[in-house]
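Run folding on both entries below.
>entry_1
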Amino acid sequence: MQTAPDMHSTPSAEPAPLTYHHDEINAVHEFKFHESTPRAVNVWLDHMERIYADISTDAQVRLWMDITESGSLPVSYAMNKTYRWMSKLDVHPNARMVFVHKPDMLMYLADQLFRTLRLNHLQTRFFTADHSEAARAWLVER
């Protein structure tokens, strides 16, 4: 995995809040979060802007969000920033997003919440790390 460029910090030796890898074979954008901070959300959204820059409506976006190391992201901050970013998009292609996490009741509740939301273009599922193979299978199914 390559380290994500961090445009939200000074050129210090501060570690990146996440790493990013593009699995070109399965067309999956993989993010591994190292910290649960607004900075990590900002760096993720920087990547998302680049991914969506020239995207078409018939594209299929696949996102692997590994939060096993960081734990849950700052929910209110992430939702607000993501909503603002999404509202600026001209194109909303179909997207699948998997969160891979450690066992946590909060993640179970988040999974249930996302399943009840009617987001026509976005499907989201949460899997514990020991079910990462099932998560990958769900993410790449057509």
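>entry_2
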Amino acid sequence: MRISKKITATILTVLFAFTLFACASNDSGNSQTSSAPVSSAPVLASPESSSSARSKNTPAPEKMAGIPGYYDPQKDYFDRDPYNIGFVILSVPTSMHQMFIEAYGRWGEKLNYKLTDFSANDNNDTYISMLETLAAQDYDGFFLDFPTELRDRALEVCDEYDLIWFPGLSMVMDDDGNLLHPSLTIDNYGFGSDMAKWLLKTAEQEWGDFDVSTLGFMSIDFSVIADIHVRERGAYDKLAELLPDVAENRYFVADGSTVNSFSAETGYNLAGAILAAHPEIEHWLIASTMDDFAAGAARAVEAAQKDDVTLITATGGTTLVAEWDAGAQSCWKSAVYYEALLASSTICAGLVSMIDGETTSETLWPNWINNGQTYAKLIAPCYLLTHDNYTEFFEWVDEFTGMDLHSYDYHGTQFEYDV
């Protein structure tokens, strides 16, 4: 069996149709109607279709100036004492946590707050006692990152101390899926789908008209966390749509939750075991739900001497970008990247707006409150990065956010963000 031209055409048509701040989607991938106007749905253009000059991109902060809950570059945030804001994390910080810790800190330089991060080292009781201790101290607001199992206890502390807070990295919902606080999230199901599409498209580009009966597809999951697990489901569903025989007969899942670890070592061990157990597979596509898993899987592929017949993509990308910067390239070729500086601009401005008293959790971002919901839900901006486009992307981010954090050569943006 060969990859058909029909599948290739389908992949090419939909691969770069990323949208941000669009209609909200739930974890099953089914759409919900958003109250936001359609004109407020920016689209990420593919590098092939966009030739916008840098000067033509009007930064979103300028367009949102004067609207409570958004960063206003014309506002004087330094006419008061700096706020103290804490970021309380359950786990030992992952690469994703580190990315957002840095981004929240950068926005503190513009919004006039000091950020301090805390980790409970994966201990639930420590998390709650730490939150109670910090709540009694001189903190004006918090970013809080806790799992569903800690939801009720954490919310009790927030209510008892009347904390002003924002979810650090994920949504906080009740058992029926209703938001319990304003949240910014990412289209996790769409991530998985986009990873599968990219892998299949790139496989044909890299390997030509190869025999699909030799193809295996591996997803690296962490199934006990719903927001991560749904990425694996998105990848499987898209694979089942485009190559059902592979999905049914040569689809493998490496689940990090079986050893309760997010590390690169876990990615190495789990992926390596599957590679060794299936010598009949001649070509491998690997979709990793997390950055660290992908780094480990790439090492496992190298150890198995399958670099030339394996393609890896992942959700995340910070580790991959660091490898590219160091001059290294491997079978890990791309990442669905959620740029923390872009996403956190709205989160940080929203929290400061609540501390300022301009908004409350119920009145923040009213255009993004879905029908039947009490609180707003925003979808974070995400972009598919490869070695060919990543330097352009980060220089565009500098222009967009007004932060000069990168030193790559710039030749005109190929990305769009039009709020």
